[in-house]
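Quick log. Single chain, no ligands specified.
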Amino acid sequence: QVQLVESGGGLAHPGGSLRLSCAASGFTFESFTMGWFRQGPEKDREFVAGISYLGGRIDYADSVKGRFTISRDNAKNTLNLQMNSLKPEDTALYHCAKGESVIMSQAQSDYDYWGQGTQVTISS
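-> predicted structure:
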């Protein structure tokens, strides 16, 4: 079955960096769009970044543009999110998600499997 397992979260100071990874299994990883979403305290889950099946197209939420970089390694079935210049408002549970197809989308309804999430806390 499809499994998505995130890792790399933790505590960082404002201005610091973290790198999240998502290990995918149970499907043909290279055939699907992948994305990162997050849910902060008392907030709705929101789109963070998405990457097309071969990595040629990338999309970011405005709030993370210029600070976060999404990437994928199709040989290793791994999705990554490099987060730099972190802010307290980046504090959230970060989820890796599998797209339903090759279509790029920010809509949660276009993603059909989700990992359990990895917690990121930004605090001084």
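The CA atoms of residues 39 and 45 lie 4 Å apart.
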